[in-house]
Amino acid sequence: MFLTVGVLCLILPVLGAGVFFPTKRKWAIRLVVGDIVLAVCCVSAFLAIRPLHLDARDIPALKSQGAAIIEALDAYERNHGRYPEALSVLTGILIETRYGAWHYRVEEGGRKCAIWVGDYGRNLFELSWDSDKKSWYLDA
């Protein structure tokens, strides 16, 4: 859609410039330059907001990365008797993915926790794990 709008924004004023300003070359050039800038902005906006959908080949890698986080959370829980308040407490754990960062929630005063990655609204999936069920759930 943005690409179509960008193309229309580029073409229509150029045609209009030829009709309304046949002798005003300077105005026509300004319109063309402005339209090129507008088209580039439209295409950039499209590329920036397009959703990144889950690639099925990424699921094992995400689960593996999540397993490292879970292992660190369980070790913290064994040493402190509760899960940490934030993932930032864990050192040396990679929490960034191509779908965004892993999210974390602690419940019941640190007795339960959950992690998840993905955003159903943006990526059309969410992969989650919670300490109660000790299993993965993929909502896609």
CATH topology grouping of the largest domain: Pantoate--beta-alanine Ligase, Chain: A,domain 2
In the CATH hierarchy, what is the class of the largest domain? Alpha Beta
CATH architecture call of the largest domain: 2-Layer Sandwich
| Order of strands in the sheet with most strands | 3-4-5-6
Q: What's the total helix number?
A: 4
Poorly predicted runs: none
Fraction in beta strands: 15-25%
Order of helices and strands: HHHEEEEHEE
Mean pLDDT: 80
Number of structurally distinct domains: 2
Q: Into which percent range does the helicity of residues fall?
A: 40-55%
* Strand count: 6
**How large, in whole angstroms, is the Cα Rg?**
25 Å
Distance between the termini: 25 Å
Structural class: alpha+beta
Overall shape: it is: elongated
What characterizes the major β-sheet?
A: 4 strands, antiparallel
